[in-house]
Every structure is written in structure tokens, then in C-alpha cells.
Amino acid sequence: MKADAETLYGMIVEFEDVPLLMTAVSKCRDFGFTKWDVHTPFPLHGMDRAMGIKPTRLPYLVLGGGLMGLAAGTAMQLWMNAIDYPLNISGKPLFGIPANIPVMFELTVLVSALTVFFGMWSMNGLPRLYHPLFKSRRFRRATQDRFFIVIEAVDPKFELEETRKFLASLGGNVIEEVTENPED
Amino acid sequence: MKQSVIDPLNNTVDDPTRPTELVLGGQSYTTITETVADIALEQKTPKAWYVAFAFFASLTGVLFLMIGYLIVTGVGVWGLNNPVSWGWAIVNFVFWVGIGHAGTLISAILFLLRQKWRTSINRFAEAMTIFAVVCAGLFPAIHVGRIWLVHWLFPIPNYQAMWPNFRSPLLWDVFAVGTYALVSLLFWYTGMVPDLATLRDRAKGRVRQIIYGTLAIGWRGSHRHWHRYEKAYLLLAGLATPLVLSVHSVVSFDFATSQLPGWHTSIFPPYFVAGAVFSGFAMVGTVLIPARQWFGLKHLITLHHLDNMNKIILATGSIVGFAYATEFFIAWYGGNPYESFAFVNRAFGPYAWAYWTMVTCNVVTPQLFWFKKIRTNIKVMWVMYIFVNIGMWFERFVITVTSLSRDFLPSSWAYYKPTLIDILTFVGSFGLFFTLFLLFVRFLPVIAMAEVKTVMPIADLAGDENRPAGDYHGDIHPKRRKGDK
Amino acid sequence: MAHQRVPSLKDTETMLSSLGPKVFNACLVIGLIGLAAALGLGLAEGDNLRHFGFSYLVNFAFFLSISLGALFFLAIMFITKASWNVVIRRLAEVIAAIMPLLGLLAIPVILLAGQIYGWAQPDARTSHAMAHKAAFLSKDAFIIRWAIYFAIWSAYGLFYWRTSVKQDGSGDVALTRRLENYSGHALVVCSLATSLAAMDLLMSIDFLWFSTIFGVYYWTGGFVTFFAVLTLITLGLQSTGRLTKIVSMEHYHDYGKLMFGFTFFWGYIAFSQYMLYWYANIPEETAWYMLRSENGWGWVALAVLFGTFLAPFCGLLSVQAKRNLGMMAFWAAWIIVAQWVNLYWVVMPEFSHSFTISIMDLAAFFGVGGIWLAGITRLAMGTSLVPLKDPRLEESLRFENV
Asked: What residues 58-87 of chain C have any CB closer than 8 A to a CB of chain B?
């Protein structure tokens, strides 16, 4: 694969061995890369610390979603059954909390779950059906049985030869350059 | 490997000094991927699959034929009569929605409880949840009478400016089952995305690449993604856990908020949930055992998994038995003559045959699972699952029909019998369930590959050869353990 | 990183040693003074110890529920072959093994049954509603049943403790297997006994009222209180330098999750019972709640709702709270108080239809609690605080929450 610096997306290095990968990842973190990532077929524990990733803010988003669901469930029942069209049924209060709790609860869970789902995917920038990495045949094993470190070319510390040397020192299998533009 | 295990696929030997291996036969990441992905991608579809699919698809046809006939003619085609205005439709609804609960228990509650053996069976169970909820949702929808007004169930302003009555448990059902269906789907799909990406990356044909590629929404295994993904999975599990409690509790409220003897009792919510899990595990087992056999998954869905499932069946079955006993005791203790009549009538009245079928299948036969020999015997356990399925269907039948057919006023007592249409509709719903299931096992990743890879038995980094790995997140090494072939 | 050094038992003090006698003596003195004070106050009221009987019942039921929680905890941990708990399991073992002492503490309840229980009143004996169950709700049957309950609980409680202590010496793996195998029938038998005992102990105060879920309601309250007590005991031991290097934040995180989970479960059970009775609105069922929502008891009911469910639910929701020892101590103490108030609200309205609380309740709390804790300390003094040779101990030391 040939690529000039302008169309270069980044450089990937493949690993087979998790402990080696972990050490390599810590080295990349300490080297000070910012635009880089690790691709693995399954979540590796300890990787957050090895990469230096901060905890996600997703739970707070979900808490907000849940409270919105709760408020919506409460307001909806109050307005529809007690204000807009009050109807006396079996002598129950128009808005009797015990009878309204189930729907309040369900809507809390529903909106929370929708927030988790859409929040997580959008924070991850997915769906995104095309990605330069998909052009690498080797990279297909990232969802199967191989582990990859990717350093993007836009990283301020990225320098073609230097980075290649650095990656070679990590002990991975193969280093590959990935280009930006789709080519057939 | 020091103990003399005769069957290499039997990992049920109880040895407290080491965690049980969950993936057998010296697997590597590569072989796991091949085993699971090739079911969808490479394996030639077995002839049995076509036969089964043709059979169940025709049954589905019968189901829709019956529904069409019902819509055209009216609910008079069912066996409902005056006191028994809730018949098979509600029984089938509760039966199917209960089946779904095992899936959520496996995917959410066992996840929170760090039961790592769930990884091999959770995809199956979650799929089953969704298909069961689809079958369940059909019955109330076709039971409302004027089906073309079914949207009145939802709080949509209609021309009469009226709203649904939120104090009715039947409306709670709409919200509970609706939320449950949607959240289960989100959970299932979220769990499947990384595996769909695996299929995308292994698929050879253009069409498959496009279909799996679209479904995988561009997943590329980025750890920055995994990081949020895992948090999201945990949050969904945390939400699904109280949700699953609420769903069958709300279903039980349909009965228990009334004043009808035999229905109105405070243990109904947890007892219904336990019964739901009980029936659901039996259904998971019913479909898991053939699937494991046909697709060669015995080293992934091991005897240990089945043994654990059988223990849960034993536990929940015993809870159900405990609830039956408590109900009887309080019916006597409370001294309400109607309540005690309802229970004596269940056991010795015109539906005694149904009652004793239920007790035999739900309380008596599952007790055989106290014996390990039976818990680890594939054929026997499969028969037991069928018994539980039958018993739990009859439980709902007994609850619904016995209390309604003989209520407070003896002059209105009547005997309820289903019609052929009732029976064919119910049988047809099995067609729908299994058709969906067959499509699932053929085209989707039937085992959560990414999750199984996290619990693989791979040698410890410290090189301590005596310490068996596996069952630990974190200790991961791609080389096979010494001593494995 | 994934590989921390596994902590070693040598790093930490695992015996009560000199602390044991101090705690034992202090608890015993507090217990005896508390009981004497409560009894004295009760005698001074001149009501044939009726008020004392109710006061005592609340506290007896409270501490019994905690020990039952420990017993069920052990059975569940063994049957699921769980490993995380091994390092703190001895604490649960001694809390459960105190059952024979609780059996002795049950004697005042039995002696004062005539003052406490509706079914023991002369007018109840002639009531139509009692006719069919007069033999069941009689003093003789009551005594026989309590003897059976305590025989069962004591047998299992002592079994877990003794077998585990035996393993400290021999390290025999077969003992673990036996503990696991016995846990199946332990759960079945203890569930039946506990459910019926809850009805005997608390539900039958009003002999007309009934609820099928009542046993679960009592059990769940005890279970969540047990985790709160376990949290405080672990924190207390660590503050004296015991178990410091081996009980980690991961174990507290699990305590927090269990407290949170069972707080929610308690709310679910309480709601199920309340909502169904509220909704059906049948007089014989709502009477129980009516009594408990009028004449000042309504405020206590709201305090129960807020204290046992809403507040700890919100307080323990976040991971940060569960991994903060100050917060954990606060919520554990809160749950203990709230669950006590819950039992007070279940029992006391039967004594006085308008709200009442007295110093005697507090004295009885320290009385029963002091003796209970003294007994537990006495059991813990002889042995290690950790099951030293449990095959899963190492796993328990090293586990990490995902």
C-alpha cells in the first residue's frame, strides 16, 4: 500500500497477544498520542486505564432521561384522567398515586432505555457505515481474533517514519498504512 | 484436568478449588468465531431446517387464517361464555409473556450477578424473549373485539376527546408489555452489534456484506466505543431488571386488583414473576437442546450450563409450589368462605383435571431436578421441560377459568370449553414462535461471540499452572492452557 | 492493571483477640441494663406488661430478621458457589449461628402472648372468625411452632458456622461440598419456616387480617437490614485494624449493590401488598392499613415510605455512593433505623390506635440488641474472622467489579 502524507489516514499495528498489547497500549499512552485507538474483538478489562480513558458521562444522561420519563408519565396521567376528561371509575381518586405508579414506572424505564441506546450510539459516532479502516483486509480480523493499535495521521505527534519505528518497537506482528480516500 | 473426567464435555464435576470452565475443547478466539459465524455464513442449511421451517410456517399460516376468521366473524367464534369472559386468549397471553421473562433474567439479572455462564445462552434466550412477546402481544390485540379500534389503547386523542383510563390494570399492561418489548429489542440488538460486525467481516457474498454491514452500523471494535458500550450494556441490564419484575407483576395485577376469589391475593406479583422465569427457562431449554445438537455447540453450551438452568428451574418451580401452598393456607386462615370455596373448587371441582395436571407438572416433576443424574441427562431434562411448559400453561388456565366459571352467584355458573378456533389459534402461535426462531438460528449469530471470548479458559499470565483460568474477566492470553489437547 | 498482587492474610489481623472481651462485656452490660430498664418502665405502667410486650416484640422481630437474613445469605452464597463473599462470610456465619440465643429471647414473647396477640384475648376465643382456626392460633400450638422454627433455624445456623470453623483446621474441600449440598434443603425448609413464623409473629397480632405476601415482606426487610449491619460491622472491624488489607472497596461495592437491590425489592413487595389492598378496597383487608394511616400513624407510614425506600434508593443509586465508605456507613445506619421504624409501624398501632413512642422502645432496642450482639461477639471470639482455608478465599481476595 502506497500513500502520500495527505491522504494517509493512519498506521495500524496488529497484535495476537493480549499482555503484549496491553504493554504496547500503555507505551502509546505515555508517548502522548491523542488521536489513536485500540480495536479489539471483545472488551478488554484494564484497557481503560491502559489507554487513559475517562469514565463516560452516559449515566448522567440516562438519569436525566429517566427523570423526564417519570415527569412525562406523571403529567400525562394527571392531565388526561384528572384534568382534561375527569371520569369517576369505581370511586377511585381521579389521580390516585397507587394506581398511577405502574405507568409512571414504565415510562421512566422506557425513556431511560431509549436514552441509553441512542445516547451510546451517538456518542460513539455510529451508525457510520464507511470508515477508512475498513479498507484494510487485515483489519477485518479486529472483530474476530486480532487486536490492533491505530495511530491517526492527524495526531500532532504523528510522523511517518518516527511513528513506524515506534510501532515496530512495540512487538506487534505487522504494521500497515491506511489511506483516507476510498479507492477501488 | 487432574481429576479423571471420562467425558471431556462433562464439566459438571463439583470442584470448589477451581472455577468451572465455560468453554471446552481447547478453543481459541479463531475457532469460536468460526464455530458461531459459520452457522450463519458457511454451513449448508440442514434438511431438517427446511422441513421444520415448512411445518412451522404453515402453522403460522393457520394462525393468521384463524385471526382473519375471528376479525370477519367476531369473538363469538371462541368458546367464551357469560361468566368466563376471559378464556384462552388471556391464558395464551400470560403464557407467552411469561416465557419471555427467562430471556431477560439470563441477559440482565444474571449479568448483574456476574454469572458468566450466561454468555453462551443469552443470545438464544433474548431472541426467545422477543419472539415470545410478539406471540403474547397478538392475543390481547385480537381480543379487544373491534380490532380496528385497537389504537384506543394508546393515549392518542380521538374524536370523542376521551383518554384511556390509566387506573385500569389492562392499560398498565399496554405500557408494561410495550416497554418490555421495546427494551428487550434494544438490549438484544445492542448485544448483537459486535457479532454482526464479525459476520460482516467474514461474509463472502456482496448481498450478505451489505445486509450484515448495515445491521452492524459500522462497528469496528474501537475500545473508545467498547468503553461506552459496556457502560450502556450495564445500564440496560440495570433497567431491564426492575422492568422484568414489573411486567409480570402488572400482568398479575390484571387478576389481583379484582375482588374475585382466587385472583385477589397479595403474593400474586412475585409469584407470577417466579412462574414466568420458571416457564421461560423450560422454553429456553426446549429450543436450546436441539439447537446445540444440530449446530455442534456442545463445547460452548456445556452440561454445566444446562445443569445451572435446571437448578434455576428447580428453584423457581419450588417458589411456585410455595406460593400455591401459601394461597391455600391463607384461603383457610382468612376464613372468607368464598375464598376457601374457590380453592376447594380448583382442586376438586369440574376443573380438577387441569389443577392436578398443573400441580404434577409444576411442583412434583421438577423436584426430580434435586438429583444431579437427572439434571445432567439431556433426554430426561428435555422431557421435564415439556412438562413444565404444559404445567405453566395450565396454571394460567386454572387461575383464569376456575375463578370465573364459578363466582359468587351459583345461578350463573357455567363450564367453559374452548372451540376448535381457540385451539388452532394457540397452536398457530407456536408456529409463529418457532418460525421466527428458525430464521434467527439460520441468519443471526446464535451465540454472543464477543462475550464468550471474555470468559475463555486461557492460561494465567503468572504462569501458575495449577490455577485454572476461565471465569475471570481480565486474565486473557491467547495461548491454550497446558494439558489441553 | 489486571494483575494486582493478591493480598495475603498475613498482612492483616484476622482475630478479634483483645477487642473481643471488651465488646462482649460492653454489649452484655448495655443489653442487661436495657432489658432491666424496659422491664422496669413496663412494670411501672401497670398494664400487665402489655406495652412492654409490644415494645419487646418490635425489637425481637427486628434482630431475629437480621439473623434470618444472615442465614439466607449463607444458603444463597453456598448454593450459587459464590466466591466474592468468602472473606466476610465468617461474619454472616456468627450472625446466623446466634439462633439458639434468639430462641431464648423469644421466651418473653411467648410468655406475654396473652397481652400481645389478638387471638389470645378472651373475646377472640368466642369470635365467629376464630372458630375454624382456634386450634391453630392457640397458645399450645404457638409454643410448639416456635420450638420447631428455632429448632430448624438453629440447626442450620450452627451447621454453617461449625462446618466452616472445622474447615479452618482441616482445609478439607469435602466440607465445602457438604455446605453447598445442604443449602438446597436449607433454603426450602427455612423459607417455609420463616414465612409461617412471620405470620405468627407479626400478622397474627390482628387475627382477622391476612396477606399471602406477608412472609416475604418480613423476610425482605430483614435481608436488607442484614446487609446494612454487615456493612457497619465490617467498617467497625476495619477501623480497629482488622481485615484492613483483605476487605477491599470491591466488597463494599457489592454490599452497596445488595443494599440498593433489596431496598428496591422491599419497595416492590410493600407496594404489591399495599396497592392490591388499596385497589380492591375490601374492608377486612384495608382495616390493617386504615389503622396504620390514622391518628398520627399516617405520618409514620410516610416516614416508612421515604425512609426504607425512596431515600436509600436515591442515595445508593450511583456507583460513587457505593464506593464511598462515608456514604456507605451513612446509608447502612439509615437503613437500620428505617427498617426498625417499619417494624414499629407494623406492630405498635395494634397496641395504641394513636401514635405513641416511649423511652421503653429504645431501652428494649438496646436490651435485645445488646444481648444479641454480645452473643455474636462471643461466638466470633474463639475463631478467625475469616474462613482461613476456604478453597474460594483467594478468588474472594482478588475479585474486581467489572
From this structure: 79-81, 83-84
CB contact under 8 A, C1 and A49: yes
The residue count of chain C comes to: 402
3-state secondary structure at position C48? coil
In a domain, B395, yes or no: yes
Give the ipTM: 0.90
Distant-in-sequence, close-in-space partners of C270: CB < 8 Å, separation ≥ 6: C217, C308, C309
Q: What is d(CA B103, CA B473) in angstroms, rounded to the nearest whole number?
A: 23
Closest to B220 in 3D by CA, of B235, B238, B200, B243: B200
Q: Which of A58, A76, A81 sits opposite B228 (nearest CB)?
A: A58
User: Angle C297-304/C325-347 helices, nearest 10 degrees?
Assistant: 150
Range of the domain at B287: 37-447
**Cell (9 digits) for B394:** 395450565
Phi and psi torsions of B480, nearest 5°:
-75, 155
What is the residue type of C204?
S
Instruction: Please enumerate residues of A whose Cβ is less than 8 A from a Cβ of C.
Output: 22, 45-46, 49-50, 59, 63, 91-92, 96, 98-99, 101
Q: Inspect the interface and report whether the beta carbons of C268 and B242 lie closer than 8 Å.
A: yes
Question: Do B474 and B337 have their domain in common?
Answer: no
Residues B319 and B456 grouped into a single domain: no
Angle subtended at Cα C328 by Cα C323 and Cα C333, rounded to the nearest 5 degrees: 175
**Chain B hits for A55, Cβ within 8 Å:** 231
Q: Give SS3 for A177.
A: strand
Cβ–Cβ < 8 Å for C365, C340: yes
Asked whether residue B345 falls in the same domain as residue B461, the answer is: no
What is the tally of helices (H) and strands (E) in chain A? Answer: 5, 4
Best mutation target, B41, B120, B228, to test chain A (most A CBs within 10 A):
B228
> Which of these CATH numbers, 1.10.8, 1.25.40, 3.40.720, 3.30.70, describes A8-53+128-179?
3.30.70
Report how far residue C136's alpha carbon sits from residue C204's, in angstroms, rounded to the nearest whole number.
11
In this structure, are residues B36 and B445 in contact, taking their beta carbons and an 8 Å threshold? yes
Model confidence pLDDT, tens digit, residues B157-167: 776 678 888 98
A147-152, strands of its sheet edge to edge: A36-39, A147-152, A8-15, A175-179
Angle at C316 (CA atoms; ends C314, C320), nearest 5 degrees: 115
Lowest-confidence pick of B269-278, C221-230, C370-379, C391-400: C391-400
Whole-number Å distance between alpha carbons of B260 and B339: 8
Q: Domain for residue C3, yes or no? A: no
Residue B177 sits in the same domain as residue B318:
yes
Residue of B223, B254, B451 for testing the chain A interface, max A β-carbons within 10 Å = B223
Residues 6+ apart with CB under 8 A from B156: none
pTM given for the model:
0.91
Binning pLDDT at 50, 70 and 90, where does residue C197 land?
A: very high
Q: What is the mean pLDDT of chain C?
A: 90
| B202 shares a domain with B99 | yes
DSSP-assigned letters across all residues of B335-361: --HHHHHHHHHHHHSTTHHHHHHHHII
Taking the CA of residue B382 and the nearest CA in chain A, the distance in Å comes to: 33
Is C5 contained in some domain?
A: no
H-run or E-run covering B43: none
Phi-psi region for residue A177, left (φ > 0), alpha (ψ -120 to 50) or beta? beta
Chains A and C form CB pairs within 8 A to the count of 24
Go through chain B and tell me how many residues it has: 485
Maximum pairwise Cα distance, chain B: 80
Please report where in the chains the cell 377459568 appears, as a residue: B401
Question: How long, in residues, is chain A?
Answer: 184
Strands A175-179 and A36-39: unpaired
Task: Give the type of residue at B456.
Answer: M
Q: For residues A84-97, b (16+ Cβ closer than 10 Å) or e, as one string?
A: eeeeeeeebebbbe
